Amino acid sequence: MLLVGGGPVPSTLAATGIRVRVAGSSSLRSAVPLGFVPAAAGVTGSTPVLVTPDVAGLASLPALSSLYRTSSWLAPLTTTRLRGWQLAAVEDRLARAQARLLLTGSQFSLSAPFTALDEARAQASAAPQRLLLAGGGTIAALTLFIVLAGGGLRRDQRAELDRLRNAGARTSHCVLFVAVESGWLCAAALGAGAVVGTGAAALLAKAEGEPAGAILMHSVITPAGVITLGLGWLAATVLLGTLVLVRGARLTDVLAVGAASALVAALAGSTGSNHALALLVAPLCGLAVGVLTFRAAGAALQGAERVARNGPVLPRLALVNLARSPAVPALVIAFIAVTTGLGGFALAYRSTLIRSAADQAADRVPLDALVSAGPDFSTPLEVAPLRRWQALASGAVLPVRRTDANYTSGAGTVTVPALGIPADGLTSIHGWRESDGSAPLATLARRLEPRGPVRVAGPVLPADATWLSLPASSPGLAVDVTADLRDPQGAIRQVALGTAGAGVASLRARVPPGRWELEALELSEPTGLIITNGHQNGENPAAATQSSTRVVLGPLLALPASGRSPMRVPLGRWRGAGAAAAAAPASSGATAMVDFAASGTPGVLRPAQPTDTQPVPVLADPQTAAAAGPGGRIALTVDGLPVTARVAGVLSRFPTLPADSAGFLIADESTLAAALDAQLPGQGRADELWISTARPARLRAALGSGALAQLDSSFRGDLDHQLRDAPVARGVLGTLIAATALSVVLAVVGLLTMLLAGARDQRVESDLEEQGVGPHGLRAELRVRLTIISVLGVAVGLGIAALLTRLAVASVRAAGSVANPRPPVVTVVPWAALAAWGAGTFAVLALAGWLATRALIGSAVR
């Protein structure tokens, strides 16, 4: 056999019917075979784990024949390189294997990750829908670009149609001519776009290490892809041909009505079950606003010309020329506005996705790291003291108590998760929103902060105390007495003093080395009596039997080794809790008389605590808060112990707590620990740590070795990276970046199209040249016109972007980019990014216009 955990272990293990030779040692890095990763050899508290490949030899050992055992075989299923189109075949193969195994009549069964494969299939099938939004904006921009291109070609095409009519062509001939001209132009454009898109997909697939050919054959080069390309060609041809044949104003009205109708349908779909239409809300809204911008831009240019009549000559001249023929400039302004707006929306959508991923990670790990108990249930503070965690983190370390609480509501009992977290650490958690609470988080944290000491310490034993002596008697029945000692770190050490009987006896116990505080005395039934009562109560249909006795204790003496006078601890004023109820104190106050009920639960005798009279302030969900009584008080049962709480605030959610729970309770960790320890010492001990660290690599390394390796840990940065790095999320973000870049390209192309189609009016240039304006003046006037168009387009586009950002949350939910996000997605308006986007778009347009006018005017002069 091979040793993979624990130690030291002898090289040969021999007993009756067993002989095992330990051939060596190794480490096990995966938790799949055993359900946990064994601690390294030599780690304190680690359990030896021995493994062997000789299954038959292990089963043949005679001494193991009477032991319960299970047999299982593990086969690795490599899922990391599975593609969406392969998942159905894998599931079918596993299902057939499962059916064949069941038909053999054997006692074995096959289990496979069917649920995980189903989830993967759902994600793969939803990926195109999630990408539709990012592509929808591009489709809307391309639709408007076709309108722009048609407007630019309209003059030449109309002149050609007039020539054909003069030559005797009929209407059908003209329609056929326009259809052929538009068809081949759109076919060439779509063909070039398909080639570029296919090449980009192949490059992206290779960059991800995926088979480019298989990816393309199952995504782009498919019957659905061919049909989509054909429908796109048909729609583009019809639109471009209609632009030539129909008057521009009429077509604009048709587009406005169509966009508005589609927008209404999409808005209806966003509130219903038709999420495919909801994904098009933002693109259709941008298209509708673009049509409105086109209708308003002409009037705006004419109005600006009137206002600028007394202004500088160059801007006034540019506005006069724009107002002369406002159709094409208005169309370019609308196009630049739509592309700028959709690009800004892509930035807002991307920022919303990134914020949602960060919020989800913070909801699972509120600080930088979360450390909890591992498979052996050892808590972080049991493995290492708080000082060591603080040294490793070089930051704040919050001890957290996670448990459940019960309260009565109506005729039933409600169980909710409860958290104890230091009140002063609430404001440091990530992902918190002010809307999550009935008041700002800092105010709620102050309501949880203790107003004074939450715990009264018991007597501290002398450093040289070696024995504890306690006179005790219990006339009614035997009672075991245990001293609960607390070390400086808060851990409880139980020391058995003995059993109190009918006569007065001095119970004694040795004090373990160290500094100790006597927190309480614990009373319990002897083990034999517990078993007997349990057996009788289990078989007796009547009410459970219960007996009680009066126990007399004290005073307790701490005896030093040096022979000095012992420390005397009077117990008369101590209080009882649980199964112990303190009677009236004796006159001397040195002796405690306790009524103890043999109910199967321990009784505690300890100093009076603040939580005996003061309720524990808690933050609760609305449903739990509504169940509170007068003054916000609510009676809880936490870990089977009674705790009185007072609702100090209401929260709609809290990190690390499940969304499907019936509610929750949040308390200050020290206050909750004091209330629980007052009922049963040690019960309030924190069981996990929330850590804020500036050195995560150091903390990660420490958690991966030594005794700390047995603990479970999660890092917020890892979760955030996993959510962002998911294939679909990465694809959506990449598509949005590409759509933003394409928006700039389309805006530049639109500006240049206007420059070629309508901005350079030969009559205007002739008039200016006759008045003595040279090439420099012509270029300056044309650049001013382009600048005015760019400024108006970018300004309106930023307004469209600000408007569309309000639709980002609805689009994210409809696209399913985040499945059941917790916390809910919120709109993120990246104002700085939008400002930079607007400035960058204008700069690119200005540069393109400057270069184009220089080339055009210069070539015309030459």
Radius of gyration: 39 Å
Q: Please describe the biggest sheet, giving its number of strands, its sense, and whether it closes into a barrel.
A: 7 strands, antiparallel
Helix count equals 24
Q: Based on helices, strands and strand pairing, what is the structural class? A: alpha+beta
Shape, principal axes of CA atoms: elongated
Low-pLDDT segments, ≥5 res: 266-277
Helix content: 40-55%
| Terminal Cα span | 92 Å
Strand content: 15-25%
How much is the average pLDDT?
A: 80
How does this model look, in words?
- Helices cover 49% and strands 17% of the residues.
- The protein is α+β, with helices and mostly antiparallel strands.
- Strands 9, 12, 14, 15, 16, 18 and 19 form a 7-stranded antiparallel sheet that branches. Strands 7-8-24-21-23-22 form a 6-stranded mixed β-barrel. A 5-stranded antiparallel sheet has the order 11-10-13-20-17, with no helix packed on it.
- The termini are far apart.
- The model is unreliable at 266-277 (pLDDT under 50).
